[in-house]
Structures are given as structure tokens and as C-alpha cells.
Amino acid sequence: IDCAIELGHECVAFTEHDTVANAIKVQKYYKKVKANNPDFKVILGNEIYLCRDGLSAENFERGVDKYYHFILLAKDKIGHQQIRELSTRAWGRSWMNGKIRRVPTYYQDLIDIISTNSGHVIASTGCLGGFLPGAILRYNANPSPEMYEKIKGWCIGMEGIFGKGNFYLEMQPSKNIEQIIVNKFLKKLSDELGIKYIITTDSHYLKKED
């Protein structure tokens, strides 16, 4: 928060890897700095692991199933309640995989919780660990009309869940060649589908010298 204010940003979002516990500490600190920074905003969210419906320790297929990153940002109190409910479901079905706890959110969870009362949560496609960037890179390596339509269909489906204007294609500034490929493809998708893109960076790059 201090760094974002120093850099002149209007807001900062908190999206740790499938935990919303940070919200308590963030809100307490935000109250302290708000008096001297009344226009600065804090956005609470979560970076979930979006997985196929029904994924469990018993049916996980190594090399097939992925724990795709996906960003959720609360627009209001209802939105944060929805995010908390999603997290509760995911942690309730979580399991240990070696030393790592897997916390999957299903697509059906998004349908049950978000689409029934959309407009309170903003979603974005995430980093290279997300489903869409991964699909784009697979398409780039082996393009086919079927894969292209699958990519478009996924985006349209997600916009349908979150509502028009609440789903974004996420680009990240980078010299990484894969990220550059993804960014260019996302711009093309944005133009074709009319879905806006958002340019983000994370705390690793939130430095004054950058």
C-alpha cells in the first residue's frame, strides 16, 4: 500500500494464491493510511485455482489436470462475500499433494455463486499460469480452427458468467517471449470479441526504479 501510494497509483489490489485471510490485515492498515490518502482505494480479491468440475485427489490425472490461475476482484461487499464463499467451497474439498495443498475451484462454483447474482465481481484471465494463456500458447505451437473456436468460446462463456464488462483479458508487461505471444493474441481476441483487456503487474515489479 505504501509503495503504491508513493508511486502515485490510485489503488492496489490484493490477490494472494487462494486465500482471503489477507483482507483483515489489509483493511486494518488501509484505515490507518486513508485519513491522509482519502482518494486511494484498496481492492480485495483472490487468485483462485480454476479446475475442471469434480477434480479430486482420487481422479487427478498427472499431465492432464492443471491448477489454472484466475483472478477475482470484489467490486463491493456482495462481491467479496461471493469470493469468500468460493474460497470456502475450494478449501472444503482441498487435499494434500505431497507438501502442497491443492485448493480447486470448479467452473460449476462460478455458475452457482457468481452467475446467479453477477455484477459484483470482476474477473481476469491471469498470468501464464492461467487456462487462457496456456491455450493460446498451445494454439500458437499447433494452430487449428477448432482450437481457435474453443478459445473464443471459453472467453464468451466466462463473460456470460461474470456479466458484460466484468470479465477482462489480462496482459502483463514482460520481455518473456511467451508472454509477448499471449499479449498479442489477447489484443486480437479483444478486438474480435469486444472483451476489454487489462494491463497488470504484480508486487515483484512494483518498484520505483521500474
Q: What would you say about this model in short?
A:
The protein is an alpha/beta fold and 210 residues long. The protein has helices at 2-6, 22-34, 77-92, 107-113, 131-141, 145-162, 177-193, and strands at residues 11-14, 41-51, 68-74, 95-97, 100-102, 104-106, 121-124, 167-171, 197-199.
Provide an overview of this structure.
- 41% of the residues lie in helices and 20% in strands.
- The chain is an alpha/beta fold.
- Strands 1, 2, 3, 6, 7, 8 and 9 form a seven-stranded mixed β-sheet that branches. A two-stranded antiparallel ribbon has the order 4-5.
Shape: globular
Radius of gyration: 18 Å
Mean pLDDT: 94
**N- to C-terminal separation?**
17 Å
Query: Would you tell me the structural class of the helices and strands?
Result: alpha/beta
DSSP helix fraction: 40-55%
Strand content: 15-25%
Order of helices and strands: HEHEEHEEEHEHHEHE
- Determine the number of helices (DSSP H or I, runs of at least 4 residues): 7
Low-confidence runs of at least 5 consecutive residues: 206-210
- Give me the count of strands: 9
Q: Tell me about the biggest sheet?
A: 7 strands, mixed
Question: Strands, helices and their partners?
Answer:
Layout: H1 2-6, E1 11-14, H2 22-34, E2 41-51, E3 68-74, H3 77-92, E4 95-97, E5 100-102, E6 104-106, H4 107-113, E7 121-124, H5 131-141, H6 145-162, E8 167-171, H7 177-193, E9 197-199
Parallel strand pairs: 1-2, 2-6, 7-8, 8-9
Antiparallel strand pairs: 2-3, 3-7, 4-5
Which key features would you list for this structure?
single chain, 210 residues, alpha/beta, seven-stranded mixed β-sheet, two-stranded antiparallel sheet, 7 helices, 9 strands, 41% helix, disordered C terminus
